[in-house]
Amino acid sequence: MSRLPKLPRGLSVASVLRNAALIALAAVTLAPFVWMVATSLKAPDEILTRDFHLWPHRFWAAENYASAFAAVPLGRYLLNGVVVTATILALQLLIAVPAAFALSKSEFRGRRLLFGAVLFGLLVPYHAIAVPLFVGLHALGLLDTYAALVTPFAISVFGIFLMRQFFQGIPGELVDAARMDGMSELAIVWRVMVPAAGPAISAFAIFSVVAHWNDYFWPLVAVSSDTLFTPPLGVVAFRNDDAGTSYGPLMAAATVIVLPLVAAFLLAQRRFLEGIAFAGFK
Amino acid sequence: MARIEIDGIEKRFGRTPVLRGIDLDVRAGEFLSLVGPSGCGKSTLLRIIAGLTREDRGTIRLAGASVDQLPARDRDFAMVFQNYALYPHLTVAENIAVPLVMRRLTAAQRLPFVGRHLAGSRAARAAIEADVTRVAETLGITKLAHRRPGELSGGQRQRVALGRAMVRRPKAFLMDEPLSNLDAKLRVEMRAEIASLHHRLETTFVYVTHDQAEAMTMSDRIAVMMDGTILQIGTPDEVYADPDTLSVAEFVGSPKINVIAADADLATALGLDIGRVPDPQGLRLAFRAEAVELVEAAGAQLSGSIVHLENFGSDLMVHVATATATAPLLVRRDPHDPRPRIGETWGLSIRPDRLLAFDKAGRRLRSVVGGRA
Amino acid sequence: MTEMSRSAALPRQPVETERVRRPHEERAAWRLVAPAAMLIILILALPMAAVVALSLTDYQLGAEAWRFVGAANYADLAADPVFWRSIVNTVVYVVEVVAGSTALGLATALMLQGSSILAPVWRTVFFLPVMASLIAMAIVWEFMLHPTFGLVNGMLGLVGIAPVNWLQNSATALPALAVIGIWQQFGFAMVLFLAGLSGIPQALYDAAEMDGAPSAWSRFRLVTWPLLAPVTLFVVVISTIRSFQVFDTVHALTKGGPNKATEVLLYTMYAEGFEFFRTGRAAAIAVLFVAAMLVLTLTKVVVVEKRIHLK
Question: Which of A 185-214 lie inside 8 A of C, CB atoms?
Answer without folding.
Answer: 185-186, 189, 210, 213-214
